[in-house]
Design a protein that fits this description.
The structure is a single chain. By secondary structure, the protein is mainly alpha-helical. The chain has a domain at 44-144. Helix content is 64%, strand content 0%. It contains five helices and no strands. α3 (50-62) packs antiparallel against α4 and α4 packs antiparallel against α5. It starts with 10 loop residues before the first helix and ends in a 15-residue tail after the last helix.
């Protein structure tokens, strides 16, 4: 068995993190939900385009004649400041989420591999007539039936 990770996360840890997440959400009250269709039709501001947007603001503030009457420079500046600040926070949150997801994936893989080893061992014991093991095979078999590991299909195997 690989044992990719050995970690604990207590109920107290979970409560503390959930409290902090609630506090964090309260600091981010501007969150909105865009549909996939809305996202598809929006212009994208990636790191490569930020200098273009900054230059537009620079010239707009210095040459008011080139600013269309429907463009609010105050909101323009507010938007770019928001993008830059939230990009830094977003990168940290994505990194944290990736670390948590990877740790959960590793622990899940370890647990699934252990379950497969128990199931396969019970099947072997049941074939040998060890009392009480057929119940284990039957119960685990119901849960295993129809399930597929991403990298394996078919009968349970253990390494």
């Amino acid at each position: 068995m690989a044992n990719l990770i050995s970690a604990t996360f207590t109920e107290e840890n979970e409560r503390q993190v959930m409290t902090l997440l609630t506090q964090l959400k309260s600091l981010l009250p501007f969150g909105i939900k865009l549909s996939d269709d809305e996202k598809k039709h929006l212009n994208r501001l990636d790191d490569g385009r930020i200098p273009f947007v900054e230059k537009g603001l620079f010239y707009g503030e210095r040459q008011p004649l080139v600013v269309p009457p429907y463009t609010n420079l105050g909101e323009y500046k507010k938007d770019i400041d928001f993008v830059k600040a939230t990009s830094r926070v977003g990168a940290e949150l994505q990194s944290l989420a990736e670390m948590l997801n990877d740790a959960r994936t590793a622990a899940g893989s370890d647990a699934y591999q252990a379950a497969l080893s128990v199931y396969n061992s019970a099947k072997g014991a049941a074939k040998q007539g060890v009392p009480g093991t057929q119940t284990i095979v039957d119960e685990m078999g119901k849960l295993f039936e129809g399930q597929r590991n991403n990298s394996k299909a078919g009968e349970a195997t253990s390494k």
